[in-house]
Specification:
The complex is a heterodimer of chains A (384) and B (802). In chain A, 72% of the residues lie in helices and 2% in strands. With 384 residues, chain A is mostly helical. Chain A folds into 2 domains: 156 residues, no CATH class; 201 residues, MetI-like fold (Orthogonal Bundle), CATH 1.10.3720. Chain A has a 3-stranded antiparallel β-sheet with strand order 1-2-3, with no helix packed on it. In chain A, α10 crosses α14. Chain A is globular. Classes of the chains: A mainly alpha (384), B alpha/beta (802).
């Protein structure tokens, strides 16, 4: 039969398994705290307990994702028949390693799955948020700045997307019927264009009169952008590094599609406020182009609320991913992501509660960390 | 009837050695130290000082409304003999709003936008006097009548947003008066209002003391207002009262160098840009943690004597021979108060205007306001922002455009700069017509030759980019210099030009004070050798002493570059000082234009006359004719028929045949290019008297004759229970105390960003913060009389480069 270790050993075992995270946290947080005066907004986070907690939790999960292979004792997909539904602290007879949080109904190590699950969440959630930001900013700037028809049109589109029930939208986007059509790839192609457009415009407007800098930066943007674009949208990366599963691409596109209208509205509102400032008028009176004003005069001053929003939005996206996983949408059924894990565990909740707790707690703590971070950032930006 | 009026001998309010500190997380910041004053029944006391001097803290301290971090740490406030410090919260509540009432700067923020005015007014007697609703309504109506609002019944039924700013402020005053308070605290009550509206409020406030026997404490940064409203005045500097006495004594026989500095830096009628320029106070207000030992004003004072002024803390010293006049200066007996400061630049040659640079002819700007955004239906209305504007500005001439809010002066600026295009008419810049070329179609030369200096220093620089990079970007845009290194050099030269140290290149705008930011704004405007500079109230948001420095700087650069300057302002005293010619605008029309002398002496357009009489002048020898305009400025959406000014004109009855109602008056040419848009017959014009005149008997100062010997007085040291400096951390942590002050009234500040007090407090905050980086604002904000001239500076800079 399976042997068990005591609860204390489980706790110490977990702490021990996370050693790369602890090292990482110390390496990052201690210097940050010591030099917080020189680190600008990031440093100011260390002035409040909330900020420190937020930063610590976020870094915890970031390092977990980075060092997942070192932390997890088992393969997240590996099944050990004897360990089926085993309780926390069970010892796997073959390797004599402990199933710290027990095994799930397919006899996989819950702890390892939780750790590897963080990888999926920490790649998709921030990346999707970043793309949503790009799309929202690129469309929100002209809507707020020009107003009028452009604004009416873009706001109408945003409202349309916002009015559509999100879950239904996801169902549609990830149903096999639609997945097989070129729609997801078409949408991906469209969304992934935005960062390239954004950065090209950014550099072009600033360095129009300075060709030396302009060609370098534009070239870099186009090469890197084109490379990533080829890899993500056409799955044709010549170097074979950038690659995304069709499943994940769907999820990605769906999340970007659902959250960019929110960003759009925030940016539009901020721009409408900031464009009345004298420095914008000063830029206009020296003959700056509208896109220069939007990208270099207005956008930097909208960064505070946008950073806060991005933090919160990563949290929402994480929950969204959990929800999607829970509904079994998108990701592969055996994927270790937290949503899928919660779904799997929930079926047996009455008999075994332990497989459900770690992914739930992980999801909750990560979102909590992001929210704390956002709170602290908001506090600090209010002081400025 | 309140008790105080029956017993006139006892003062209503007695403040003795009051000290107030703010306690932040990292330490204590003394905001007010050793402040004493007493207010007699029916008397008005003015508190004046620059931003961050603690004047608002005093008024909040009297109400004991210091938010949770402010505490009274020493001294006492006695209201009708009761110590405010010992009252319980219940007793305080029954006094606040009942016996002591307060009026703030921003009327809209003092009124509840969700309640009708009548209900808000009725609350006061219902709460404090427990009267019935009917009785409360009766009293409210009476008071609304007493503050001279038209149609009181309708006023009572309106919501605050349906009233104009002036009407709202009158309602706030009515609310304060309802409980028949013994003491009224007014904190910059007119700063947010237009000049002609301000004049009405001031007249109302002045009558209060007589009518209701109310005592007043009037907090303001405007010396002219204090002169018009108050009996006695206290000048504050860096948390201390530095001088107190009757208005007449302090204005005419001041005995503190700071007070004198203030008076020398405001444009009084005697000042002249060529023969008697303004003299600003060098340096800046010290932060709470860097207050010097001894006299706080010492480092900025030209009468400073080492070992005497900074030997010990200085008490308030009575001035012999003056009634109740105190000064916090140990040397006032030795100083020759009539002496001109050394090294004053004098008798510059008046500029000679050259060829016409900017010719505006029959310019019109109409806006169409669509009735419905999305479906585009409906008729849409036309707002006539500018109507038949014609004037000419010559090379190196300063033309002032004067008018109140909504007169179309900002629209004119926008059209000039190409942010809008004209509806009809023409603008010629040099020889090119630019009226219908918008900014993106103008070539670089045109763009760089007409530039603007903006009003709000806190908004004029982009907070995200360093000072240097913002100027370099402008140079890049104007095609100045061929390489980045060239442009950087030019940028450093520009910094020299505006008398800022070259180290400012890497500073972020938040590290600069308001005056310094405005200098960068000036540097930017002149970056491309602008031919025409439009200055939109460039100094109105700055502190008095800084105002003078920036004004002088602007004029110096203008003189050097032979630039044409359009100086947009509502402040006629600055205009009189700086302008060669004046254009007066009202509701989109130019109602009068001419040389400065022609505008400031009769015959006047009736509006100009009212405007002139409305400006508060801080000079006791000035006698003004008193004209208060009825009502408010009509909306440009719905202008009156005929003459735009006919609704408020006091001469309307003297025009035969009711022409004012029917026809827009033609432009009439009076002598010497003086133009007036008015129907009045010539004989009425001829009979007009000057609005501002000097009293003949400008009295010789009796106290001045012989400067006494020896130090004035060394008495008991002032009572400062907690010292006077804050720890640097404390200043850095909470910002300075101004920040706390600001946060306690955040709502008001949010609304009124572009007015002086707010801006200033903003500035205080940034200054306090800046200490955290260990960098100190260099003391350059105000060029002093001791400083070298611009030319010398430029030479120095040249030498440095070589």
């Amino acid at each position: 039969m399976v042997e068990y270790v005591g609860p204390l050993s489980v706790i110490f075992g977990v702490l021990k398994q996370f050693w790369p995270v602890w090292v990482g946290l110390i390496v990052v947080l201690v210097p940050s705290f010591m030099y917080k005066k020189r680190l600008g907004l990031y440093g100011q986070l260390f002035d409040s307990g909330v900020g420190i907690a937020g930063v610590a939790i976020c870094f915890f999960w970031l390092f977990s994702a980075i060092f997942a292979a070192q932390i997890a004792p088992f393969d997240p997909l590996g099944q050990f028949a004897i360990m089926k539904d085993s309780l926390p602290g069970a010892i796997e007879p073959a390797s004599h390693k402990v199933f710290l949080f027990g095994g799930d109904k397919l006899a996989r190590d819950v702890f390892s799955r939780m750790v590897f699950g963080s990888q999926i969440v920490l790649i998709i959630a921030p990346a999707a948020t970043a793309f949503a930001l790009m799309v929202g900013i690129t469309l929100g700037l002209p809507a707020g700045y020009y107003g009028g028809r452009i604004d009416t049109f873009l706001s109408f589109l945003a409202n349309l997307v916002l009015a559509f029930p999100v879950i239904l939208l996801f169902y549609l986007l990830v149903t096999p019927g639609i997945t097989e059509t070129p729609i997801p790839y078409g949408m991906a192609g469209l969304f992934f264009l935005f960062p390239i457009i954004f950065f090209s415009t950014l550099f072009y407007t600033r360095f129009k009169n300075r060709p030396d800098r302009l060609y370098l930066l534009l070239g870099l943007t186009l090469v890197i952008g084109g490379w990533v674009y080829a890899g993500l949208v056409f799955n044709a990366d010549p170097l074979g590094i950038v690659h995304i599963d069709p499943n994940q691409l769907n999820i990605f596109v769906a999340v970007v599609f659902a959250s960019s209208p929110g960003v759009f509205r925030i940016v539009r509102g901020l721009v409408m406020d900031i464009k009345t400032r004298d420095y914008v008028a000063a830029a206009q009176t020296r003959g700056e182009s509208p896109w220069y004003i939007m990208l270099w005069e207005i956008l930097p001053n909208a960064r505070g609320p946008l950073i806060v929003d991005a933090c919160l939005r990563i949290g929402y996206t994480t929950i969204l991913l959990g929800t999607l996983g829970y509904f079994g949408l998108g990701l592969a059924p055996e994927s270790p992501d937290w949503g899928t894990a919660i779904k799997d565990a929930s079926r047996l909740l009455r008999s075994f509660i332990h497989p459900a707790l770690p992914p739930t707690f992980a999801l909750m703590s990560f979102v909590l960390g992001l929210n704390l971070l956002a709170d602290a950032l908001r506090e600090q930006s209010m002081k400025d | 009837m309140n008790e105080a009026v029956r017993n006139p001998a006892a003062p209503i309010l007695e403040i003795e050695n009051l000290s107030i500190s703010f306690f932040t997380r990292r330490g204590e910041i003394p905001a007010v130290m050793d402040f004493s004053c007493s207010v007699q029944p029916g008397e008005a006391m003015g508190i004046v000082g620059e931003s961050g001097c603690g004047k608002s803290t005093v008024s909040l301290g009297i109400m004991r409304d210091l938010s949770n971090i402010g505490k009274i740490v020493g001294g006492s406030i006695k209201f009708k003999g009761k110590d405010m410090g010992e009252l319980t919260p219940e007793e305080l509540r029954s006094i606040r709003g009942n016996e002591i009432a307060m009026i703030y700067q921003e009327p809209m923020a003092s009124l509840n936008p969700a309640m009708k005015v009548g209900q808000q007014l009725m609350e006061v007697p219902i709460l404090h006097d427990k009267v019935s609703k009917e009785e409360a309504y009766k009293r409210a109506l009476e008071t609304v009548r007493a503050v001279r609002l038209p149609d009181p019944e309708r006023m009572m039924r309106s919501y605050p947003h349906q009233l104009s700013g002036g009407q709202q402020q009158r309602i706030v005053i009515a609310m304060a008066l309802l409980s028949k308070p013994a003491l009224l605290l007014l904190d910059e009550p007119t700063t947010a209002l237009d000049v002609t509206v301000e004049a009405g409020i001031v007249e109302l406030v002045k009558g209060l003391g007589k009518e209701f026997g109310t005592s007043m404490i009037f907090v303001s940064h405007n010396l002219g207002l204090i002169l018009e409203t108050c009996d006695r005045i206290t000048v504050m500097y860096s948390g201390e009262a530095v001088e107190t006495g009757s208005v007449k004594d302090v204005f005419d026989r001041m005995r503190h160098p700071y007070t004198q500095g203030l008076f020398r830096s405001i444009p009084l009628p005697g000042a002249d840009k060529n023969s008697r320029p303004l003299i600003s106070i060098p340096g800046q207000l010290p932060l709470p943690h860097e207050r010097p030992k001894g006299c706080n004003f010492g480092p900025r004072c030209q009468h400073f004597v080492e070992g005497l002024c900074n030997a010990d803390e200085i008490p308030m010293i009575p001035v012999a021979g003056h009634d109740n006049h105190y000064s916090r200066c140990v040397r006032f007996n030795e100083i020759d108060w009539k002496a001109e400061p050394v090294n004053t630049r004098k008798n510059q040659e008046p500029i000679k205007p050259g060829a016409p640079m900017l010719q505006i002819d029959d310019l019109k700007k109409y806006y169409k306001v669509a009735a419905n955004e999305i479906f585009g239906g409906g008729e849409g209305r036309v707002v006539k922002a500018n109507e038949t504007i014609s004037f000419t500005a010559r090379e190196s001439e300063t033309v002032a455009i004067v008018g109140e809010s909504g007169c179309g002066k900002s629209t004119l600026a926008k059209v000039l700069l190409g942010l809008e295009t004209a509806s009809s008419g023409s603008i010629k810049l040099g020889n090119t017509e630019i009226q219908s070329t918008s900014i993106d179609l103008r070539d670089v030369k045109t763009v760089s030759s007409i530039q603007m200096v903006f009003q709000n220093p806190f908004d004029t620089l982009n907070p995200s980019h360093s000072v240097g990079s913002q100027i370099i970007r402008t140079l890049e845009k104007f095609g100045v210099g061929n390489t980045p290194a060239d442009r950087r050099n030019r940028m450093l030269e520009l910094l020299d030009l505006v008398k800022l140290p070259r180290a400012f290149e890497t500073r972020m705008p938040r590290q600069l004070s308001g005056g310094q930011k405005q200098r960068i704004g000036v540097a930017r405007a002149f970056a491309g050798n602008a031919k025409v500079v439009v200055a939109d109230e460039p100094v109105s948001a700055l502190d008095v002493s800084v105002q003078a420095a920036v004004t002088e700087l602007l004029m110096d650069i203008q003189r050097q570059n032979k630039t044409t300057m359009l100086f947009i302002s509502h402040d006629l005293s600055v205009v009189r000082y700086i302008a060669d010619r004046v254009v007066v605008m009202y509701l989109g029309h130019i109602v009068e234009q001419g040389t400065t002398d022609q505008i400031f002496s009769p015959p006047y357009h009736p509006y100009t006359e009212a405007l002139l009489s409305a400006i508060p002048i801080a000079d006791t020898s000035v006698v003004k004719k008193h004209i208060v305009l009825e009502g408010d400025i009509p909306s440009a959406m719905n202008p009156p028929s005929g003459c735009p000014f006919q609704t408020r004109c006091r001469y309307k009855s003297q025009v035969p045949g009711g022409l004012c109602d029917i026809e827009v008056p033609p432009v009439r040419n009076l002598a010497g290019g003086h133009q007036v848009k008015c129907h009045l017959p010539q004989d009425v014009f001829d009979k007009m008297e000057p609005v501002i005149s000097f009293a003949k008997d400008k009295d010789a100062d009796p106290g001045h004759g012989a400067p006494g010997a020896g130090p004035g007085f060394v008495g008991t040291p002032p009572k400062r229970p907690r010292g006077k400096t804050a720890s640097p951390e404390a200043s850095a942590a909470g910002g300075s105390y101004e920040e706390s002050e600001a946060s306690s009234r955040l709502r008001r500040e949010d609304r009124q960003e572009d007015r002086s007090e707010t801006g200033e407090r903003d500035l205080g905050e940034t200054e306090g913060r800046q200490v955290g980086w260990g960098s100190q604002i260099d003391d350059v904000d105000a060029p002093s009389p001791f400083e070298s001239t611009i030319d010398e500076r430029a030479e120095d800079a040249d030498k440095k480069k070589r």
